[in-house]
Amino acid sequence: MSVQVRIPTPLRRFTGGSEEVAAAGTTVGSVIDDLERQYAGIKERLCDNEGQVRRFVNIYVNGDDIRFLNNLDSELKDGDELSIVPAIAGG
Questions:
Q1: Would the pTM count as exceeding 0.90?
Q2: Is the dihedral of CA 36, 5, 65, 90 positive or negative?
Q3: Does position 89 have pLDDT exceeding 90, yes or no?
Q4: Residue 1 neighbours by CB under 8 Å, 6+ apart
Q5: CA distance 53 to 78
Q6: Which CATH architecture does the domain made up of 2-86 adopt?
């Protein structure tokens, strides 16, 4: 199963500049693992040492924040769109 993953500008150095890539998986976590397989080093930018999504990284499935779904266990279906959005802080 394939989903489209929207890559934010700071992470595009891992994807050769691509703003959107295809990845396989049935959950958000398995898609992140597939991204790591394809683009070594990207997972550590998304997940902490315990394997959880980093505090300042937001991930959305078809516009829904995974924190309000099942986090990394959020299920995906063919054709879904996963968006990675770095949080912006400041004042």
A1: yes
A2: positive
A3: no
A4: 24, 25, 26, 76, 77, 78
A5: 22
A6: Roll (3.10)
Cα–Cα distance between 88 and 1 in angstroms, integer? 31
Cα Rg of the chain, angstroms: 12
Judged against a pLDDT cut of 80, whether residue 63 lies above it is answered with yes
Q: Is 68 helix (H, G, I), strand (E, B) or coil?
A: helix
Residues 31-61 as b/e (b if ≥16 CB within 10 A, e otherwise) read bbbbbbeebeebbebbbeeeeebeeebbbbb
Give pLDDT tens digits for 25-59.
999 999 999 999 999 999 999 999 999 999 999 99
Q: Per-domain residue ranges for the chain?
A: 2-86
**Structure token pair of residue 25:** 């998986």
CA gap 2, 31 in Å, rounded: 9
Tell me the one-letter amino acid at 10. P
